[in-house]
């Protein structure tokens, strides 16, 4: 396995590359590292290593898509020499969407498919109140309510102080995102979500249809916003047919 500044790569000549983007506060390598063992051999799973976590913990996390997305385009471009796809969960879905737009603006090769998970269609307004500017105690309470941040981190003061800046940065990026209308993509979008996700109902996922001229597919799994952990096998089973 080769660690590059921005992705984890383990194949020299794959038939496809699946770039995987993490949710807020998450590390792509820890979330997606087992996917390589399950998806077809020709598919190289490439977790995207964002600043502020894992191997890049000492680097400050980005707080807005306008700064991060062009950097992603530049850094990932050398690995877009074979057909590629994007998978993003929650914040990762937003990043993969905006990265695809950036590639189109630069007249570069686009992914052959987007897999977006647990994020409302980007043109829809937020329903929940922002939490990124809350005082620490309230912010930590919000993190606990939302789930996704391990309780071991929330209860460990030293770990919490280590990860809090990245969590705040990620929530800032998501909550200050300003959607700008552009033409829909001419590429397929597969949309996934949790059946009991209180923040992202099925109707918000169905609204992704506005972002593609092709019919989207939508599939719901048991669980809430972070269904992909408990339903990983089912999610990957749903993704595999796209590589046949």
Automatic annotation (TrEMBL):
Superkingdom of the organism of origin: Bacteria
Start and end residues of each Thioesterase domain: 17-240
GO-annotated biological processes: lipid biosynthetic process
Signal peptide coordinates: none
Family matches, as PANTHER family: S-ACYL FATTY ACID SYNTHASE THIOESTERASE, MEDIUM CHAIN, THIOESTERASE
Family: Belongs to the thioesterase family.
UniProt name for this protein: Thioesterase
